[in-house]
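thought: fold this chain, then report.
action: predict
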Amino acid sequence: MKRDRTKRFWRTFWRVCGVVLLLVGCSERKTAVRLGNSQGLPGELLLVVDESLWNTAARDSLESVLKGSVPGLPQNEPMFRMMRLFPENFSPRFSMMRNILEVRRDPGLKTTEMGVAYDVKAAPQVCVGIKTPDAAALGRFVTANRETIVGLFLEGELRREASMLKRKYSKLVDEASRDIFGYTVKVPSDLGKVKKAEDFLWASTDRLEKDLNFVCYAVPLTDGKALLDGRWVALRDSAMKRNIPGSAPEQWMTTAVEGNDTLVETRTVRLSDGRVAYEMRGLWEMHRGGIGGPFVSLAYPDSAQGRMLAVEGFVYSPRTEKRDLVRRMEAALRTFVPAGR
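observation:
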């Protein structure tokens, strides 16, 4: 009886979604049908999983990926707010969720397969489907592909936030960026306090809690590997020391260190628009100031002007969670493009 209910669920699921998700690879759905707005809070994800898989060691692998800690934060915060349903509890209203990961068992398969579809029943929406022959194969697959799985949903979150910022943003900061660097940027509209300097821009909400900040500074054009191998921290600290002082002469912003190590992670990223940028995320602190928080930076090569342009979002919010604040600023950094593009 339970097996029959499960079969009926999957037939209903595909009928509700209107597309087969489980094709290996990645494709974007094109449609002329107007979709409703997707449901769910920022970072919220619905996991629909076969009970026979959930009640195994594969559960630990799934939770490790979806609830793993966000990098670059001063405290543990999960990658996603996860809701879990068994197939028999899935109903059409859940098909409107912004992020859906659906996992099912198919004993006829020899290997685990994964596919993704976008804007299936709502927009914006990311639906990822995984089919697996058994729990052991699922555990191995999820562990080996955690970055890909997380990346699909995280990219969707950033695109969603960037789309909203393009509709409502700080025109003051955009104009200042155009004036100093010749680039447009869409940061949250409440960043209203601006400081301009030579090859430097700082904008802030100037709050005591949930304070969002945007920074842009120019540095000499350099090889990406050299930038990521340590030079970027020195360039960042130099720019911040000159332009973001504390309340006393011996105070200024700097990259946080632990022992002799800076608390940063770096990598090369390819953005959804095809551009290659360099990413650094970690913790900042006020030298001899007793405050700090997380930051994320992107550096864009500007070969025509012989420079790198580094844009950064940093957050000060000592008594609240910071994941969604950092993601909002990270999305803003991706809107940084040459004016007129």
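thought: worth noting. The CA atoms of residues 25 and 115 lie 6 Å apart.
final: tokens above.
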